[in-house]
Automatic annotation (TrEMBL):
Residues 2-41 form the RNA polymerase sigma-70 region domain. This is RNA polymerase sigma-70 region 4 domain-containing protein. One of its GO terms (molecular function) is DNA-binding transcription factor activity. Pfam families: Sigma70_r4. GO terms for biological process: DNA-templated transcription initiation. The lineage of its organism: unclassified sequences, metagenomes, ecological metagenomes. Transmembrane segments: none annotated.
Length: 146
């Protein structure tokens, strides 16, 4: 952020009006407001999410960060333990901002089995343990398209 933007933020934080900031910067009060607003936008965008969240949607990454997750390994543990999961009988997640679709996206990003695949595999194991033979249909793709 350049000197002009920093000065506008400092003056505004000190309680100055845009008219007073304009006098300091030698611009109109309207232009002072524009400079300040752009400085604030730049300040927000400088705060990018940590590198370990790359590949996730910003909203999902923010929800994980706000819930205290600090690494991909912690997220994988949360998925496996069920801490990152759905509230039983609903499509709402246990973490605010993370629902059924976000959990599937996180699972794919983390490289772990999605909840749906896990449930299917558990059902197949149960059926096989009771003597049923399971044959996968030929027309089902092995990997879901991303």
């Amino acid at each position: 952020m350049n000197e002009r933007y920093q000065k506008s933020v400092e003056l505004r934080d000190a309680g100055k009006t845009f008219k007073e900031i304009g006098v300091e910067l030698n611009v109109s009060s309207g232009r002072a407001a524009q400079i300040y607003n752009k400085a604030m936008r730049l300040k927000r965008t400088e705060k990018s999410p940590p590198e370990w969240t790359h590949g996730l949607q910003t909203k999902v990454a923010s929800s994980l960060l706000m819930s205290g997750y600090t690494s991909k390994e912690e997220v994988i543990e949360g998925l496996e333990s069920g801490d990152i999961g759905l509230v039983r009988g609903t499509s709402k997640g246990k973490i605010f901002g993370i629902g059924r679709h976000a959990i599937a996206d996180i699972s794919i990003w983390a490289g772990v089995s999605t909840p749906e695949k896990k449930a299917i595999n558990d059902a197949i194991i149960l059926l096989k343990s009771h003597g049923y033979s399971i044959k996968e249909p030929d027309n089902v793709p092995k990997k879901a398209p991303i």
